[in-house]
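Input sequence (410 aa), recorded before submission:
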Amino acid sequence: MAVGQVDIVVGLPTLNNAETIACAVKAADEGLAKYFSRERTVIITADGGSRDGTNEIVQELSSASKPVASGGLRTRHQITSSYGGVPGKAGAIRLIFAAADLLQARAVVVLDPEVTSLTPAWLAALVDPVLKQSFDFIAPLYDRHPLEGPLLTQLVRPVMRATYGRQVREPLVGEFGCSLPFATHCLAQDAWDSGLTRDNVEIWLTSTALVGDFHACQAFLGPRTLAPAQSPRPGLREVFPQIVGALFSCLDRHAEHWLLREGSEPLPMIGPEGVRTALAPTVDPVRLGESFGHDVSDLQPILRSILAEDTFARLSAIAESDSAAAIHYTDDVWMGTVYDFLAAHHLGVMDREHITRALMPLYLGRVASFLGQHAASDPVDLEQDLERLSQQFEQAKPYLIERWNRTTLR
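Predicted structure, C-alpha cell format:
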C-alpha cells in the first residue's frame, strides 16, 4: 500500500536462491533504469520460505524507495514478501499477480532468479509488447540447440500446436510478460489450489493465454543458463509426470475451446530474433534406449488397454526388432502413442498418474531414436524434422478427436 500505483511489476519467485538472487535483482533493476526510467516500477521477490539468507540479501539490496539512475523521472521500489501454502512457483506467481492487481500495474514480468544469463534487455523484450503494442502475454524464445529440451520438442510443443492451434515454441515459460487483464483473469480461476498449477504452472499460464480473448506473442531473449544447483534438482522421473500430467489436464480443462479449432498459426515475433549460437548437448542415445525393449514388454498389459491395436502392434514390433543402438521409433507411431495416452488420460481408464508414468519409458525410446537418427544432422535439418513432426501431430488431430470422444478406448 505504501508503494501506491505503479506501471510495471517485476516478480522474482524465490526459494533458497542466495547464490543468484543478487545478480537477478541487479539485472532487473538495471533494466528498469535503462528502458523504463519514466515508469513507476516495483520489484517484488515472492518468497516460499527461504532459509539460506535469500531475503536478507534482497533487503540489503533494496530500500523502501530509491531514485532511479540519473535522468530518471520516477522512483523505483523493491519489496520482499512471503506466501503461504506449499512452496512453489505457482504460489509465488499468484502473489505477484495479486500485487499487480492491487497496484493496478500496466505490465507484469516474472523472472527466474536461478537464471544466470538474465540481462537488463530481457525487461524491455517482455514489457515493451505490453506497454507499446497492447499484447497480453509474451512468451520467451530462447537460444536453444534443436536437440536440447526433447520433452518440449518431441511432446509438449507438437501437442499444444495441434490442439490449441498456435505455434508456441516455448510453452514451458521460464520467464514471461503479461498485461494486468491477463493477470486478473488468472487470479479469478479456480486452478490455483489444484495439482494443475502446482505441478506445472507454466503450461497452465500458456494454455490460458491461448484460449481466452488475449493477444499473445513471443520475444527472443537469448541463451537461458541455470546456475549450478546447490541441491539436486528433480530428475526426469519426477518432472515427466508433472509436465505431461499438467499438459493433459489443461487439455481436459480447455476441451471446449480446442476441439473445434482447425490448423494452426504462428505466434507473432516481436523484436528481432537473435543469432542462434547454442551448441548441441552431449547425450548418449544408447544409454537412453537401453531398457526400451524390456520396458515395452513389461508394460504390455497397460499398453494393450491404452493403445489402439495398430499402434500397439507397431510399437511392439519396434521394441522386438531394434537394439538400444538402433531404435527406429517413427514419427507416426510416436504421434499415435501420445494421442492414445492423452485419450486414455481424458477417459480415466486407470489412475492418471500411472498413465503419465507409463508413457515415460516410451518417451525415452522415442528420444533415443531421434537422437540416434540425427547424430550428424546440422541444426537446419533438425529444425525441419521437428517442424515435420509438429505438422504430423497437427494433421492427425481428427484421430485424437475420435479417440477423445469415445466412451471407451476399446
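Checked by second reader. The first helix runs from residue 21 to 35.
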